[in-house]
Amino acid sequence: MTLRGFKSFASSTTLRLEPGITCVVGPNGSGKSNVVDALAWVMGEQGAKSLRGGKMEDVIFAGTAGRPALGRAEVVLTIDNTDGALPIEYSEVTISRTMFRNGGSEYAINGQGCRLLDVQELLSDSGIGREMHVIVGQGQLDAVLSATPEDRRGFIEEAAGVLKHRKRKEKALRK
Ligand code: ATP
Ligand code: MG
Description:
Blueprint: E1 2-4, E2 13-14, H1 32-42, E3 72-80, E4 92-100, E5 105-109, E6 112-114, H2 116-124, H3 140-145, H4 149-160, H5 163-174
Antiparallel strand pairs: 1-2, 1-3, 3-4, 4-5, 5-6
Residues 7-8, 26, 28-34, 58, 60-62 line the site of adenosine-5'-triphosphate.
Subunit structure: Homodimer.
Family: Belongs to the SMC family.
Binding site for ATP: 27-34
């Protein structure tokens, strides 16, 4: 995963996430949670609150005493797809998301511009969909335990990969 201008990562920063457990260690405020936010963001997260910000533009490097703010944030995630977990004919899949300070936002899959929906559909059968239940934040376990039956059904539907079809159906019915 490469971050450019995302939150505290003003300079291009690449992290290699190997199979198994990766630990991110550092002092308070050094950007550990920002790494997790970047992962959620590049996979299509739409909630500013889930990204611990007030508005979506808050993901763009806001500047520090010694460094001016940037005009855009970009995260590029390259996934090893040799096991074919993603329904696409490539052994390596690159998803990128760019956001500009004027509000514009772009997504690409393997360098080809696409819609958010395309990213969501690509990921939705892999168990790492938009609802991000693979990212368990502080306090989230409590939320799952105290979820309403409807919300709990949502978790299960996402895990089972039927959410995509329900969303498509809802969209078709709206037309
Ligand atoms: P803790 O151990 O307390 O959980 P952490 O390592 O998880 O800390 P983060 O929350 O990832 O820290 O990073 C917080 C830092 O990121 C703060 O210093 C904050 O100013 C900085 N930050 C967040 N958004 C931006 C932004 N848009 N531009 C510049 N810096 C930012
Ligand atoms: Mg943190």
